Amino acid sequence: MWERGHRDGRRASLLLLVKMRKRLRKKKRVGEFQELCFELRAELRSDLDNAQLGAFVDRLLDTVEGRRLSFGGGAGRNQLLEGVVTRDGRGSTTEEDRAALTAFLEADGIVVRHDVGALQDAWHGSK
Predict the structure, then answer these.
(1) What pLDDT score does 25 carry?
(2) 48 Cβ contact partners less than 8 Å away, ≥ 6 residues apart
(3) Which of 46, 84, 100, 115 is found 20 to 30 A from 38 (Cα to Cα)?
(4) Where exactly are the structural domains of the chain?
(5) CA dihedral 46, 77, 83, 63 (to 10 degrees)
(6) From the CB of residue 100, how many other CB atoms can be counted at a distance below 10 Å?
(7) pTM for this one?
(8) Which of 43, 30, 13, 53 shows the shortest CA–CA distance to 122?
(9) What pLDDT is recorded for position 79?
(10) Contact of 101 with 40, CB cutoff 8 Å
């Protein structure tokens, strides 16, 4: 019973998107205007001083900005880096962006462990 209701709910939301005018879909960033982002987490070496941490963040931001992306988050004394990566301006991040940041984190000797999340809706979360 629940499965049928779940399918009917999805069908209803698809019909709502079809009936929604293009201008409203763009404003709400749904349908063809959906924007994707991904989360990024990294555990850094525990022996970092402020200069090393600052240099790492600069390298990360150079990589992010070089791909026309934005990073919202930060790194602190607890040696954790956490944040969300989005497209700079309108648009979505891609699997290639995820792969590039994964490669950066794997290559940097300061990163002990990392997790680059899956692409998800930047405005409405994952559903």
Answers:
(1) 62
(2) 56, 79, 110
(3) 46
(4) 1-33, 35-127
(5) -60
(6) 17
(7) 0.75
(8) 30
(9) 86
(10) yes
State the pLDDT at residue 27: 61
Residues in the chain, overall count: 127
Phi, psi values for residue 119, rounded to 5°: -65, 135
- Packing angle between helix 95-107 and helix 50-66, nearest 10 degrees? 150
Q: Phi, psi (5° rounding) for residue 17?
A: -65, -40
CA–CA distance, 34 with 117 (Å, rounded to integer): 18
Using the structure block, give the residue that is written with the tokens 């990294």: 42
CATH code reported for the domain at 35-127 = 3.30.70.60
Helix H or strand E encompassing 84: strand 80-87
Residues of the chain with pLDDT under 50: 1-8, 12
**What's the pLDDT at 18?**
58
- Residue ranges in 1-127 assigned as alpha helix (H): 2-19, 22-28, 50-66, 95-107
